[in-house]
Amino acid sequence: MASTNTNSSSQMDPNSGFCSHTKIFHSLRPSFSLPPPSQLLSATQFTLSLLHSTTTNFSETPFLINEVTGHSITYSDFLHQIKSLAFSLKKQYSVSKGDVAFILSPYSLQIPSLYLSLLSLGVVIAPANPDDSISELTHQIQLTRPTIVFATSDTSHKLPPNVRIILIDSQEFSSLLTQYNNLDSIGSDVVVNQSDIAAIVYSSGTTGRNKGVLLSHGNLIARVAAFRANDPFETGVKVQRVSLIRRPLFGSYRLLYMMKAASMGGTLVLSETSESEALFKAVQNYKLNYCVVPPSFIVSVVKSELTKYDLSSLKFVMSCGAPLGTEVIENFKEKFPNVEILDAYGLTEAGPVAAMRFPDEINKLGSVGRLVEVVEAKIVDLLTGELLSPGQRGELWVRGPSTMKGYVGDEKATAETIDSEGWLKTGDLCFFDSDGFLFIVDRLKDMIKYHGYQVPPAELEHLLLSNTAIADAAVVPYPDEEAGQIPMAFVVEPNKKIQRIAFVDFIPKSAAGKILRRELVNRAISDP
Fold it and tell me: What pLDDT sits at residue 274?
C-alpha cells in the first residue's frame, strides 16, 4: 500500500503545513494508505473490499431507504443486484469496458447498484441532473457520446431519439437485477486500471459553460479512502451510521458519498425534499445521525421555529456548496447544542473535497477547515503569479490523487485549468491562516470591481444573512458609470438597501447549493 504522506521536509511549519522552501501547503491530517497506482483495481472492487473488511454482519442491514415510502434495500440484495446487473448488461446488451453510459434518473434505490455494476465492467458512467433542460442534456450527450442510456419513463422524453435507452422503472430492468444467481466475483474477467476513466460528471467548470469532468477509478478510490479517514464518528464506537442525502445521486459528491456509505456498511436515506420540517421528520423516523445539506438549508433551519420532532439521534450536519457565515454557525449551535456542524470545501474538478472542518475545530468559525489528507495547495498572487504565505490572499491551486484528469472534449479548458505539474486552478480567492485553516473569500469571477477595489459578494451576503428578517440573499455586480460596478443585493425578504436591491421569491442556485449569480446579473440588467 502506498502512503499519501509524502511530506517530510524539515522546512514545513508544523502549525500551518506551509513549506517555506516550496511555498506549498501540506495536509496536517494523519496519513493513510492507498493502493499502489499500478495495482489493477476498479472503484467497485475497492469499495466492496472495504465493506467486507469493516464488518461481516451487514447482510440484512438496510443500505438504502426511500425517505417518503420507507421502502429499503438490504446489503444482501444490493450485492446481488450488482452482480446480476453486471452479468446481464454484459451478456444481453454487450456492454463492455470503455463504453459510456449516460444516466438520467430521479430518485431510485436501484441507481447505486447500476453505478457499481457498470464501474465493475470498466464502463464509464455519466450521471446527469434530471432537472436539466433538454438543451443542456443534449449538450452533455454530445460531449460524452454514450453507447447506452439509462432513464425513467418521466425523464426519457428529454433525450434525443437516436440513443439506446433502458428504462430503470421498467419490468425489463427489474429482471436484470435479479435473474442471475450464484455468480462469481463481479468483473473477474474485466481488467480495470486505476488510471482508466470511471466517470464523467458535469460541472460549470471554473469558468464557462457546463463541462464534462473526467474522473478515473484512481480518483474515486482516493476520495472514498479519504472519506473513510475523515469519518467524524469516534474511532472504536460501534454505531450504525444512518445518513441522509438530498436530491438524486448525480454529481461527484453524491456519487462518492454513496460509495463511502457502502464501504462502511452504513444506511443511506434518500430524500427529495428541501423542507426543514421534512428533514426533522426523517431524523425522527429513521434515527438519522448524519445529514448532508447546503448552507441555505442551515440558514433556514436557524430561522425556523423549533419543531415537535425528536432530534436526539442527530450528531453531525455536513454543510457543503458555499462557506457558512460565523453568526449562522453560532446560532445553529445555540439552537442545537448536541449537533456538530462539519464544513467542507471543494469542487467537482478536485474530486470533489479539498478541505474539511471537524467538530473539534469549532473555534475556527468562518473557515472551511484544513486540507484533507490527499491534497496539497498553493496560494498564487493574482497579478504576479508569486506563491504566497499564510495570511495572504490569492487564488487557491490544489493537487492530489483525486484531482480530475481533465474536461472531456475540451483540451483548451483543461490546459487553462490544470498546469503541467498537475495543479488545479480553483478560481477561488482564498487564504490560509497560521494554523493551516483555509478561508474562502469568494469566487474570482464573481468579484465586484468598485472604484478599482475588489469587493467579495460573499462578505456582503453574510452581512445580510445576519439579519433575522432576511431568509436568503445574493449580491451581484451592477454597472455604474462612476464606480464601474456597485453591489446589488437580491433578498428573499425585505429589509434595507445596500445601494441597490431587489426583492425576490427565491435565490436561483445550482444543484450543489451555489448561487447562480449570472442569472441574477442578467435579471438585474434586463429589469433595472
Answer: 66
